């Protein structure tokens, strides 16, 4: 059944437009007409934007946010944080994974994200044995997405080894590990169910540490075609050093030598590249998945975003370990990190006179739409994924055009995200979700149980 939404101001692919009527049919945009009267259309409560996709999530990690901030001996790093994460992995039960995922997806919706790529590597029981249904934990993530209504691209992760060269996995990694045949069966098992819930299916390799070139090749050969394919790469200097020692090549260069990296791929983090790697990656058409809040929290380093943008490289944003869960925080830190590095302002604008907020928002939206195979934009054929900012906020009332984005991202943050529609259905209305109280109670029970464990 068709419905209509009227926006006094909306961001279209051609730029900001006034008095826009959006026609929605079966979860997609059917028609976009500016400069028309509202008629019988429902009026949006503020400026309307295409909602953002989140291209990198480990939903279960939301349960440990804020619990790894006690200093040890001064050598705290990603690698020491990882040990705390492994402890959490050993404790979580299937119903708890579903509850944590639902809470996270609710928060992402309220933060302005309409869809998420779930990089899902938590597959088995704590001792590594498969569940009676080997897809049990994937289905828990799917159930959480269904409860909240967030758009989902599920990326089951292939994870087989503990380090470069096929080293055995560590005990803390037991819940992650597959062989190639079991992993391919998992993908086959999930395909029809994801299609039925109108969700996407891609695949992921955890990292070059966790998957050998031969395993990557075998999986790609078994599932040819344009499929979202994601991988962590070059997140930490130690990873770069280990890859050089093992292969004689840096991680991004090695990956591009052994895999057909193209526009179907998303390289998550890619923080530590040299100039030749940056040029090759930008030219490939792949998307770089940036998670600025997590990368800062883990001490990963700063992605060279200014240089990468000058190469016309594609990027999007994710929330990864979910120390933050909103669009504005990630985009703001992405820009501010470059300012701190370069001692200059307004680094990631598309050019002189261009708004930083709009440049970031549109580029990240297009990149996430590509990485999720979902698309982005208020245009016919695109998903009816809308974000409405609070038109009653005085900052938003006094702004127009690109000022709206600049004020939201750099001054206001999540508090002005008012309504979020996903595939034609309002999931957040006046900052509230219909299942919010139920989801919050279930999440609180998990946190209390973990605190006592």
TrEMBL record:
Domain of life assignment: Bacteria
Pfam families: Amidohydro_1, HutF_N
A GO term from the CC aspect: cytosol
Domain Amidohydrolase-related: residue ranges: 48-426
Domain Formimidoylglutamate deiminase N-terminal: 5-39
Entry keywords, A to Z: Hydrolase, Metal-binding, Zinc
Keyword Hydrolase: yes
Cofactor: Zn(2+)
Keyword Hydrolase assigned: yes
One GO MF term: metal ion binding
Name of the protein: Formimidoylglutamate deiminase
Annotated organism of origin: Arboricoccus pini
């Amino acid at each position: 059944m068709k419905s209509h939404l009227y926006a006094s101001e909306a961001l279209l692919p051609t730029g900001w437009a006034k008095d826009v009527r959006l026609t929605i049919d079966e979860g997609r945009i059917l028609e976009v007409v500016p400069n028309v009267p509202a008629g019988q259309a429902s009026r949006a409560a503020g400026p309307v934007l295409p909602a953002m996709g989140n291209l990198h999530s480990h939903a279960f990690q939301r349960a440990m946010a804020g619990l790894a901030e006690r200093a040890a001996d001064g050598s705290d790093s990603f690698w020491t944080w990882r040990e705390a994460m492994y402890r959490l992995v050993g404790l979580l039960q299937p119903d708890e994974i579903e509850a944590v995922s639902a809470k996270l997806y609710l928060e992402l919706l309220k933060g302005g994200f309409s869809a998420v790529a779930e990089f899902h590597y938590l597959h088995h029981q704590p001792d590594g044995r498969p569940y009676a249904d080997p897809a049990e934990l994937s289905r828990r993530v799917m159930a959480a997405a269904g409860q909240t209504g967030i758009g989902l691209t599920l990326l089951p992760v292939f994870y087989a080894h503990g380090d470069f060269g096929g080293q055995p996995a560590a005990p803390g990694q037991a819940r992650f590990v597959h062989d190639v045949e079991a992993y391919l069966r998992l993908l086959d098992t999930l395909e029809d169910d994801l299609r039925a819930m109108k969700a996407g299916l891609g695949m992921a390799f955890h990292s070059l540490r966790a998957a050998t070139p031969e395993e990557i090749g075998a999986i790609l050969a078994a599932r040819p075609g344009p499929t979202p394919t994601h991988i962590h790469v070059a997140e930490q200097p130690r990873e770069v050093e280990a890859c050089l020692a093992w292969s004689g090549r840096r991680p991004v260069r090695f990956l591009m030598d052994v895999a057909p990296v193209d526009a179907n791929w998303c390289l998550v983090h890619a923080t530590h590249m040299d100039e030749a790697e940056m040029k090759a990656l930008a030219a490939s058409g792949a998307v770089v998945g940036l998670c600025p809040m997590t990368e800062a929290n883990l001490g990963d380093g700063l992605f060279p975003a200014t240089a990468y943008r000058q190469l016309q490289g594609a990027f999007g944003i994710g929330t990864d370990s979910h120390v933050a869960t909103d669009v504005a925080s990630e985009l703001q830190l992405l820009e501010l990190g470059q300012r701190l590095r370069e001692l200059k302002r307004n680094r990631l604008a598309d050019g002189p006179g261009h708004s930083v907020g709009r440049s970031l928002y549109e580029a990240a939206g297009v990149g996430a739409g590509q990485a999720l195979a979902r698309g982005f934009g208020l245009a016919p054929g695109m998903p009816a994924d809308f974000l409405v900012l609070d038109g009653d906020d005085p900052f938003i009332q006094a702004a127009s055009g690109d000022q709206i984005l600049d004020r939201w991202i750099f001054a206001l943050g999540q508090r002005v995200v008012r309504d979020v529609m996903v595939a034609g259905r309002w999931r957040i209305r006046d900052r509230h979700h219909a299942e919010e109280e139920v989801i919050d109670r279930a999440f609180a029970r998990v946190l209390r149980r973990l605190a006592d464990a």
